[in-house]
Amino acid sequence: MALAVLGQTTGQSSGPWVLERSGTTAGLRGIHAVGGGIAWASGTNGTVLRTEDGGDEWQSCAMPPGAEKLDFRGIWAWDANTAIVMSSGTGDLSRLYRTTDGCSSWKLLFTNPDKDGFWDAMAFLDRNSGYVLGDPTPNRTDSCPQVALQVTLLATFDGGAHWDRQCEGPGELEVAAGTGAFAASNSALTLQEHEGWLGVGGRPGSDVLIGDFYGPVEHGLCDCAPMPPNRIWFTHRARVPITGGTSSSGVFSLAFRDSQRGVAVGGDYTKSNESAGTAAWSADGGQTWTAAATPPHGFRSAVAWDPDAKAWIAVGTNGSDVSYDDGRTWVPLDNGNWNALGLPWVVGPDGRIAKLDPGKLPRSAKK
């Protein structure tokens, strides 16, 4: 029997997505699947959820201190007990909290010190090394005396206990005025063992910045201390054929299934039904991008690779799509309202959480 709970109906489906009982009406944009049936979700009004049984039950977590009005756009977890949640907002509304006891309690780790800053995404390479991506601001810290407009990149190398803004050389992370990142799905930043990518948009257009990991080594460029392990340097950038030119458009999400093959999605979130310029693919590590020949059927805020289905899935405010040819062509899946992916889960507004039923994916396109 399906139960209508807080605005969604459990047990019913939207395309291949089977709705689950979230127990909240919060707008959800953060979702991270750990594996073994464990996943964490986050959203507006200080909301954090957790499941340990594959989504049969979503538990409401204790609210982090002072988080009643915070919008948790990103969450990263390692197991059923340990997670870091990131809020997005101007200045001190961007914060990081950590739990180590299954979300019974939280510790404030870091608050954005930049009154004009805004955090967009968080990703970890391992339990110690992680990064937070924020909107561009002039870099005026003591360790970074240059005042160029740079994408904000905060780094931790001790599991989140301490965070510092990364100081880049001339041209690295530097962007034109009007550039911005997007906190739509906590996936504008993605990391692998040796590489990292971040997507931006705005009036100057849509770009992907490409970085490489180094350290711990003596880099020999100056009389400096050795670089910490997993220090990333963004040394390349590539133009992406995704709709740009306005503050509401650009690359909203990107993912790589290996070091070479990746997909970026986005568009203009004020034009949810516009399909042109919503997806592009790369086969050379992000150095060059090609627009999808048959794009998703609207703006897309999140994309992820499903290794079991051997397919890419993208979601947005007017539905979801699947690609079986590495992002070159897309087939519609549903017309639901979604924000973020943490496969097999998808989340959206009004407490919407659903789980992918792989048996309901279209078979005709599968290879």
Commentary on this structure:
There is one protein chain. The chain is built from no helices and 32 strands. Strand 27 and strand 28 form a beta hairpin. The strands form 8 sheets. A 5-stranded antiparallel sheet has the order 3-4-32-31-30, with no helix packed on it. Strands 17, 18, 19, 20 and 21 form a 5-stranded antiparallel sheet that branches. The chain has strands spanning 4-5, 8-9, 13-14, 17-20, 28-35, 38-43, 48-51, 59-60, 72-77, 83-87, 95-99, 107-111, 119-124, 130-138, 149-156, 164-165, 179-180, 189-191, 195-202, 207-214, 231-239, 249-256, 262-268, 279-282, 290-291, 302-306, 311-316, 319-323, 331-334, 340-342, 345-347, 353-356. It is an all-beta fold and 367 residues long. The relative contact order is 0.14. It has a domain at 114-354: 7 Propeller (Methylamine Dehydrogenase, Chain H), CATH 2.130.10.
Radius of gyration: 19 Å
CATH structural architecture of the domain at 114-354: 7 Propeller
Which structural category fits the helices and strands? mainly beta
Discrete helix count: 0
How would you sum up the global shape? globular
According to CATH, what is the topology of the domain at 114-354? Answer: Methylamine Dehydrogenase, Chain H
CATH class of the domain at 114-354: Mainly Beta
Helical residues, percent: under 10%
Mean pLDDT: 90
Distance separating the two termini: 35 Å
Tally of DSSP β-strands:
32
How big a fraction of the residues is strand?
35-45%
**Tell me about the biggest sheet?**
5 strands, antiparallel
Enumerate the strands of the largest sheet in spatial order, edge to edge or round the barrel.
3-4-32-31-30
Task: Give the uncertain stretches in residue-range form.
Answer: 1-7, 217-224
